[in-house]
Design goal:
There is one protein chain. By secondary structure, this protein is α+β, with helices and mostly antiparallel strands. The protein has two domains: 2-162, 3-Layer(aba) Sandwich (Collagenase (Catalytic Domain)), CATH 3.40.390; 168-208, no CATH class. It has five helices and five strands; from the N terminus they run αββαβαββαα. The chain is globular.
C-alpha cells in the first residue's frame, strides 16, 4: 500500500544496523520514528496482536515507525476537534491524546485531516461507549478516522517527508498485478514484470525506478 503511492520501499533485512521487526506483542503499537540511535536498541518493534491483523491497522502502525504521530495530536486540533476529557480512559495522562507542536513534529505541509488513517475514531479509549471521546467541530455527527486506507493527506505527508516528488515512482500499472505474482517469471507473459514492478519486486530498494 505504502509502496504503491510513494518512493518508500521495504526490503528484507540483511546487515542493516537499524531495522523494523514485526511481532505478536500485547496490543497494536509502534514507537514513532527511528528510535534506535536514542534507545541503543537497533530493533524497531511493531506489535501486531490478535485483532490487529487488518491492513489499515498495520499500515497505521507502520506510519508511526515512519515518524508520523496521531492526527489528534496536532497543535491545531482545537480548530477541528473537541476532546471530551471526562470520558477518556486515563484522562489527560493518556499519551494517545498528547498534543505536539511544530517544534516537536512536522506536519509536512498538510492541513488537519479528520479522515486520516492516523486519526482516532469518535469513541477511542472511551470509558463509557455511549459517549464520544473525540468530536468534530465542523459536524458533531461526523465519523472521524478510518482504517480503509491512506487518505490523500496521508499520501501527501508521506511523499513530502521522504522527498518523493522529484523521483519517478515505481508502481504497478494495474490493480490486478498483486493477484497474479506467479506471472512475474512466466516467459509467456513478458510484459507482466514490466507492468507490475512492485508485485514482481524489481523496484529499486532505496529510490524508485
Amino acid at each position: 500500500v505504502i509502496e504503491s503511492v510513494s518512493c518508500v520501499r521495504f526490503v528484507k533485512r540483511t546487515t542493516e544496523k537499524y531495522y523494523v521487526n514485526f511481532f505478536h506483542g500485547t496490543g497494536c503499537w509502534s514507537s514513532v520514528g527511528r528510535i534506535g540511535p536514542l534507545s541503543g536498541n537497533p530493533k524497531q518493534q511493531i506489535s501486531i496482536d490478535h485483532g490487529c491483523e487488518y491492513q489499515g491497522v498495520i499500515v497505521h502502525e507502520i506510519l508511526h515507525a515512519l515518524s508520523f504521530y496521531h492526527e489528534q495530536s496536532r497543535a491545531d486540533r482545537t480548530d477541528h476537534i473537541i476532546i471530551n476529557w471526562d470520558n477518556v480512559a486515563g484522562g489527560r495522562n493518556n499519551n494517545n491524546f498528547f498534543k505536539h507542536g511544530t517544534d516537536y513534529t512536522d506536519y509536512y505541509g498538510s492541513q488537519y485531516d479528520t479522515q486520516s488513517l492516523m486519526q482516532y475514531g469518535n469513541y477511542a479509549f472511551a470509558k463509557d461507549n455511549d459517549f464520544m471521546t473525540i468530536i468534530s467541530k465542523r459536524n458533531p455527527t461526523e465519523r472521524l478516522g478510518q482504517r480503509q486506507g491512506l487518505s490523500e493527506t496521508d499520501i501527501l505527508k508521506l511523499n513530502n517527508k521522504y522527498q518523493c516528488h522529484n523521483k519517478h515512482i515505481c508502481t504497478d500499472q494495474f490493480s490486478i498485478c498483486s493477484t497474479y505474482p506467479k506471472f512475474c517469471d512466466d516467459s509467456r507473459w513478458p510484459e507482466f514484470k514490466k507492468n507490475c514492478p512492485v508485485t514482481c519486486k524489481i523496484c529499486d530498494s532505496t529510490t524508485t525506478t
